[in-house]
C-alpha cells in the first residue's frame, strides 16, 4: 500500500524475503523501480509477457474487492480497514487455491 514513488519501492524491497530479492524482477517501466531493484536482476518492459501473471492477479483483486475500484461504491473508513480486507482476501485466496 502506498504511492508508487521510490520511497515506497524501497520500503517494499526491504520487506521482501531475502530469497525473493535474489530472483529476477519483471516490472513495467515505472521510474521508481530503477533505483531500487538491482540492475543485474531487473527486467523492465512491456509486450514480452513478463508481467502478465501479476497483472492478472491485480485484475482479480479489483474484481473481488470492490474497495479497490471506486470509492463511491465501496470504501474503507481507514487505511487499517482496507489493509485488513486485503489480507483477509489473500488468506482466503491462498487457502482455496493452494490448500495444504
TrEMBL record:
Pfam families reported in the protein's UniProt record: DDE_Tnp_IS1
Gene Ontology biological-process annotations: DNA transposition
InterPro entries named among the record's database cross-references: Transposase_27
UniProt GO molecular function: DNA binding; transposase activity
Protein name, as recorded: IS1 family transposase
Organism the protein comes from: Hymenobacter gummosus
Amino acid at each position: 500500500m502506498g504511492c508508487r514513488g521510490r520511497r515506497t519501492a524501497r520500503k517494499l524491497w526491504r520487506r521482501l524475503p531475502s530469497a525473493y530479492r535474489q530472483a529476477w524482477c519483471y516490472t513495467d517501466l515505472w521510474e521508481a523501480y530503477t533505483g531500487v531493484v538491482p540492475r543485474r536482476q531487473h527486467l523492465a518492459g512491456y509486450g514480452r509477457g513478463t508481467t502478465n501473471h501479476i497483472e492478472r492477479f491485480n485484475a482479480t483483486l479489483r474484481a473481488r474487492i470492490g474497495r479497490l475500484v471506486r470509492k463511491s461504491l465501496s470504501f474503507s473508513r481507514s487505511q487499517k480497514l482496507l489493509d485488513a480486507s486485503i489480507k483477509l482476501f489473500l488468506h482466503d485466496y491462498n487457502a482455496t487455491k493452494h490448500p495444504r
